[in-house]
Amino acid sequence: MSEALEALNSRASGLSENEARRLLATHGPNRLEAKRKTPAIVLFLRQFLNPLIYVLLAAAIISVALAHYLDAAVILAVLVLNAVIGFIQEQQAARAMEALVKMTAPRAQVRRDATVMTIPVEEIVPGDVILLESGNRVPADARVIEEANLKVIEASLTGESTSVDKEVAPLPEDTPVAERNNMVFMGTNVTHGRAAAVVVSTGMNTAIGGIATALQQLVDEATPVEKSMRKLSHYTVFLVLGIVGILAGVGIYRGMSPLEVIFLAVAAAVSAIPEGLPAVVTVVLALGMRLMAKRNAIIRRLVAVETLGSATVICTDKTGTLTMNEMTVRRIYVDGRFVHVTGEGYSPEGEFLSDSAAIASDEGTTLGLLLRTGALCNEASLVKRGESYEIVGDPTEASLVVAAAKAGIDKERLQHRLRRTCEIPFESEQQYMAVGYAEETLARVYVKGSVEQLLTFCDKVLHDGHSTPLDDAAKGAILEATEALAAGALRVIALGYADFPASPDKLKCNHFAGNLTFLGLAGMADPPREEARLAIKQCHDAGIRVIMITGDHRATAEAIAFQLDLPKGRTIEGSELEKIGDEDLAKEIEGVTVFARIEPLHKLRIVNALKSKGHVVAMTGDGVNDAPALKSANIGIAMGITGTDVAKESADMVLADDNFASIVAAVEEGRAIFSRLRSVVFFLLSTNLGELIALILAVAVLGKAPLLAVQIIWVNLVTDTTTAIPLGLEPKSGDELAQPPRHPRVGLLYPGNVMRIVFLAALMGVGVFLIFDWAQDHMSMEEARTLAFCTMVTFELVRAFNARSDERTLLSLGLFTNKILLASIAAAVLLQLAVIYLPAGQRAFQTVPLSLERWGIALAAGGALFMVEELRKLVAPRLFSLGKWQPTRAKASRKTR
After folding, report:
1. E-assigned strands of 51-177?
2. Sign of the CA dihedral 349, 353, 357, 358?
3. DSSP 8-state class, residue 378
4. CA–CA gap between residue 379 and residue 448 (Å, rounded)
5. Is 362 a catalytic residue?
């Protein structure tokens, strides 16, 4: 051990900050070489890889072939502009993702200047002393210099999935990597125990750095929305080809020339294609993720954004998520009586009272020994900063350190006086921790853990300084006291000790099992979060069920559930869960509100039982053993503060503040994002279908197109580009959590939405056709087409206001709540006026100026369409809600066949 430290010019207390800075400049950041970013030119050209774009390119080529260079130029200009917008949005989305990755960048504990600190993994340098514990991902290759039952899974390096025991003893230099049991390697996972290790290599110089190429290739994930957009693109191409064929046949039948038929086909292709849809979907998802991050929900997988809106059950941990995780020891059971502990927060000031009278807590008392045990069997610390006190480590352990300090027991000073010889670190599945110290005349092991676990180890109980057998009566009294503490919503920890002539080299459970002396119980208060109570009510209103899962005692869990106003339901304990088969659990789980005394691997069964009942499950977790449940859940949610690296990597979302309210906020944002996407799809498809209907009617009835191809392209550019993206930025309506969860099979398009699209597109198409039919008899063809052109733009701009909601009117939403949309519509109006009144615009689009009277016709038509939809929302707001949240019966039955 000392040789390794000397070889790296380090020491057990760690490097100094100055040494670390110098070594970082020499060795560079501790990271594997990232895959090369896609060049900007490739990203830009990728915008043209879309079947919709292929059709428009074909239209441009046809225009060139027929010497209509202006039409071709306008089509190509629109395509380039659309590509530029898509390119910018993709870059913004990439930057948003990079920012989110930085927010979840791994961190590690190191010793520097004899102080434990947490730093970004990239800042680790050779010579750093890193501290590892269960659930950590090893941040660099390092030589173990201290360890306690350390086990590491090295599957990422060796392919072996079993845990490897680590040790401090030196090994020959030529030992194969798979057998270097005194080394830990970058990218491997600690599954048990804890250790300190000195870093020997970082970044690409690590063992995994030599084979890292494959590990660095991140696969871009297509979300269900993106997949559905691709399907829509392909369907649209077939639809366009079909319509072009029909129109060509109608045009020939109506006696149109081949040239007119070709331009009619170009116009049909242009009118049917929602060019801006892919770019809008990209930007809405990217901006939505940024909004979620601001509310402490960091999305790791895009699919979670969509799935959140479908969640029907949230399974949440209690400690730190529903509660504050600010533990304070309030009551102690010792010597057969309850002791009240005074004092607030982490200040080491307080008294120990029994029947309102202060009692002794010195070393010779059972209470003093219990407090000493709590302080020594502990990894947390109490630090004074200025006039206030802070904790370092787990709040549960810190509360025991603070309680001991109230009795004058200084943990740091006591540990310096004694020699720590062995330990068994806390693991959730074993539910206890043990630490051995060499004291003056003997070796003593201090143990703390769950009441049930410690009682299996104990054969004696200390009462008023005397050790007596732990008989059934004594056990009964302890369990009764446990129930009393838990009923007061206190978390209960049991403490005990065992003496040995000499300390064992490697502490095992069998060293003290059946030989432990029971000292007493510590009851800790962990107040519920006020915001969690409100969030649970919001979940109830949103049709989302909340299930609390905890390792705490049943009575504690039920008391907290009552304080949080969780709906009444059954409580199932872990021991009972183990006796229930999977089928019976699936039958009973609908009535369960609380799972108590649960081990991490139980969570997987709970998730699977809920999924078997058709639920979309969100599951929280923080430990290494939570990973299977997080992966199995529809939405795995890891804790950002207390979560292990393994849990975070298994999750779809990370909570930056470990707060249940942030989960509910993410659900709200997820629903809002999906609603925005629905509005955008409705707007684009209804306007494009309206253009197509106007074109088909005019050709079929009049034998003439109401708009030229170049005019239709302009309409799509002005409305799609300037209006669709602002619709994707629509503020939340405030009723997202008042709606039921959306079934996973219900997508952006649902029967009601399709009916609404067809209804409004038909009104728009018929309106343009009727105005064009009237106009061609009362003015020149150029002016008639200009009027039809302006009517179409007016229809689409007012449609943008209709598209903001399918149920709420513009007045209830607020005209000025989406200022970006107002600005974009104002810009579109100015652009349209330029096309009508500027000579260059008139030449390019074959328009003529319109009088105020003619504009009145277009505006009146647009206003009428707007009022029809707004009145529909007032009279029958749910008219087009069929299949909005649940699949229709026909669709559902097809899925189950």
Report:
1. 107-112, 115-120, 129-133, 141-153, 163-165
2. negative
3. -
4. 12
5. no
User: Strand, helix or coil at 382?
Assistant: strand
- Mean pLDDT on 519-535: 93
Which of 638, 782, 762, 758 is closest to 706 using CA atoms? 782
pLDDT value of position 95: 65
Strands 443-449 and 432-438, how do they pair? antiparallel
Measured distance CA(743)–CA(312) in Å, rounded: 9
Whole-angstrom Cα distance, residue 57 to residue 80?
A: 11
**CA trace torsion 882, 886, 888, 889 (10° rounding):** -140
How do residues 8-43 score in pLDDT, each as one tens digit? 889 988 999 999 999 999 999 988 765 566 677 877
- Terminal-to-terminal C-alpha distance of the chain: 66
Q: Look up residue 638 and give its two tokens.
A: 């890891």
- 402: closest CA among 419, 415, 414, 390? 390
**Spatial CB neighbours of 462, under 8 Å, sequence gap ≥ 6:** 366, 369, 517, 518, 519
Tens-place pLDDT, residues 215-248? 344 344 455 666 666 677 677 777 777 877 887 7
pLDDT at 416: 84
For residue range 477-503, what is the model confidence (pLDDT) as tens digits? Answer: 999 999 999 999 999 999 999 998 887
- The average confidence (pLDDT) of the chain is 86
What does each C-alpha distance from 486 to 201, 451, 489, 549 come to in angstroms? Answer: 49, 11, 5, 16
Neighbouring residues of 195: CB distance < 8 A, sequence distance ≥ 6: 131, 132, 133, 144, 146, 147, 148, 150, 166, 184
The whole-angstrom separation of Cα 688 and Cα 764 is 10
β 313-317/617-621 pair status: parallel
pLDDT at 889: 57
Say whether pLDDT at 613 is over 50: yes
∠ CA 74-758-280, nearest 5°, is 50
Helices (H), 410-450: 411-417
Over the stretch 834-864, which tens digit does the pLDDT of each residue have?
999 999 999 888 999 999 999 999 999 999 9
Distance CA(620)–CA(636), nearest Å, equals 6
Beta bridge partners of 297: 655
CA distance 323 to 531: 10
More confident residue, 48 or 197: 197
Half-sphere exposure of 64 (CA within 13 A, CB side): 11
The residue assigned the tokens 């995994």 is 208
The tens digit of pLDDT for each residue in 339-383 reads: 999 998 888 999 999 988 999 998 889 999 999 999 999 988 888
State the greatest distance between any 2 C-alpha atoms of the chain, in Å, as a whole number.
114
DSSP structure class, residue 624: G
Cα–Cα distances in Å, from 334 out to 296, 366, 457, 522, 552?
42, 7, 18, 9, 20
SS3 297: strand
Q: In percent, how much of the chain has pLDDT > 70?
A: 89
Least reliable range by pLDDT among 46-50, 135-139, 194-198, 613-617: 46-50
| 102 vs 848, more confident | 848
Radius of gyration of the chain (CA): 35
Geometric angle at alpha carbon 297, from 295 and 300, rounded to 5°:
145
In order of 585, 606, 784, 794, 832, the CA distances from 687 in angstroms are 50, 47, 20, 11, 17
Q: What is the pTM of this model?
A: 0.76
Question: Phi/psi of residue 432, each to 5°?
Answer: -160, 165
> What pairing do the DSSP bridges indicate for beta strands 328-334 and 381-385?
unpaired
CA nearest 321: which of 556, 536, 558?
Answer: 536
Phi, psi of 374 (to 5 degrees): -60, -35
What is the helix (H) or strand (E) element at residue 198, kind and residue range?
Answer: strand 189-201
**Of the listed 128, 317, 526, 622, which one is catalytic?**
317
